[in-house]
Automatic annotation (TrEMBL):
Signal peptide: none annotated. Gene3D superfamilies: Glucose-6-phosphate isomerase like protein, domain 1, Winged helix-like DNA-binding domain superfamily/Winged helix DNA-binding domain. PANTHER family: GLUCOKINASE, HTH-TYPE TRANSCRIPTIONAL REGULATOR HEXR-RELATED. It holds the Pfam family HTH_6. It comes from Lacibacterium aquatile. Keywords: DNA-binding, Transcription, Transcription regulation. This is MurR/RpiR family transcriptional regulator. InterPro entries: Homeodomain-like_sf, HTH_RpiR, RpiR-like, RpiR-like_SIS, SIS_dom, SIS_dom_sf, WH-like_DNA-bd_sf. Residues 16-92 form the HTH rpiR-type domain. Residues 136-276 form the SIS domain. It comes from the Bacteria.
Amino acid sequence: MPPKPASASTAPASLEGVIRRLEALKPSLSPVAARLADFIITNAHSVVHMSVTEVAEQAGSSEGSVISLCQRMGAKGFQQLKISLARELVQPIKFIHEDLERNDPVDVVVEKVFASGMQALQDTLKVLDMSAMARAVDIILKAKRIEVYGIGSAASIAEDAHYRMLRIGLDCKAVVDSHIQAISASLTGPDVAVITVTHSGATHETLAATRLAKEAGASTICITNFGKSPIQAYADVLLQTMARETQFRTEAMTSRIAQLGIVDALIAALALARHDKSVETIAKTFDVLSIKRF
């Protein structure tokens, strides 16, 4: 019987000595769990950059087995174990930004951050599936209503997509509260298009909302980073970014630039596809917004 998840009150904020813990646990683990432990120990530097789906696949196991092993160690899930493992292996400065050095002056910091953002856009353009983008446009145009989901740093991307779609006359709403996401997703249907923004593709809240929307019959579009992740099982269309950002960081940075790039391209394609209506709505909303300015 799989162990129960650690409660919020008992689970540690971080796990000390992840590799040592795994080595100590190995004799008491099942063959599957022991194989997983060996994989994490042997490939620790790679694991901090991997999703739970990728670890399960490469270790010849399942996502459930990975989560179960993490809980056996006292973690809430794979993300907590990965962050703790990264703390053992990665210089602390890399949690702020991969390219920074501790004594970088301000001008160098600015140059590195801007260069990272530009690289994310260039890399995303190379991996973005144009046929998937065309399918996303088609799905949205046929939908009676659009819902956009995002949690944490992805919430601002969802809000931006909501605002931009309203400006071109689409019936859209952003849902950034996890409880409302679950309720709203369960009440969608075949005439609704759902867009989920998630860098990792493994955030519990947005994963659950996307699954509920898919089960309700909605068409699902996911903007997520390149590579395998759990949310892909519930995505009809994948629009993938390629941000070099490590997945053990708790907040996205460069991935937001790539996500906004995809949203901008999507809005532009939608506006062109319904040109006359879009131009009319933009003109009308421009007049409305003009009273907000001096």
